Amino acid sequence: MCDCSREDLLDEFEAASNTDIPLPIPEPAADEFEKIWSRIQEERAESADTTEQAGSEEPGEDKVIRVRFGWKRLAAIGLIACLIAGSGSIVAVGRKSYFFRERKDEIGSNGVVFNNDMNKVAVNGEEEAYALIMDKLEIKPLRLGFVPSEMSFEEMQMEDGVAYMSFRYKDDFLYFIQSKYNTEVSHNYKSEEENVTYNKWLKEDLTIRKEFHKDNKVTIETSIIIEGAFYRLVGTVEYELFQQMAEELTF
């Protein structure tokens, strides 16, 4: 896999760590790192078994040690694993940062930015998140009555009386934001297209707003105030899916 010398390989490592040029690495599969790490562990185990067998042979016998995995190959695969893991993190963080970069003052109180991991709350799924909202914010949590099969709960963050729930759907994100209502969380959303849909559970019309970005991404948002609580659903999922989720919001 790698025919270069130790010095050349170290030079490559140093050059890669110092470059600011983005690498053209596609987004990896979710379990790519685990697969590579599993291969490394298997090769290490096989190498150790071979060495033990050679050491247990009687003196005078011909010893044949086959090392399938040299240090250069191990180092190269380790580098690939690091790059893959790093590229995945860059993609994920990049999507979050992009989504809130121009609208942070509209998301929650006091300009809260969602991608601050220091505010992350340990919850095991959205049901625990709803329970925490009721306990900590003392408001009735609004729930997603419809969740697509491919959508997964990612994480929850809380700051200054605002709860943020993050969901992942394929390559898109959806955020569900809830708080006590006050003038600081009232929003001035920059919409370029608006449509109205009816939620039969809440018996309310919901205005769904679209904001178009230069990279052809579309941000979709709707919000409502009920009994002194503020609720917002915002994401980059396709419009028909977002509309169905908005229509199925329920207590």
UniProtKB/TrEMBL annotation:
The chain crosses the membrane at residues 74-94. Keywords: Membrane, Transmembrane, Transmembrane helix. It comes from the Bacteria. This is DUF4367 domain-containing protein. It comes from Enterocloster aldenensis.
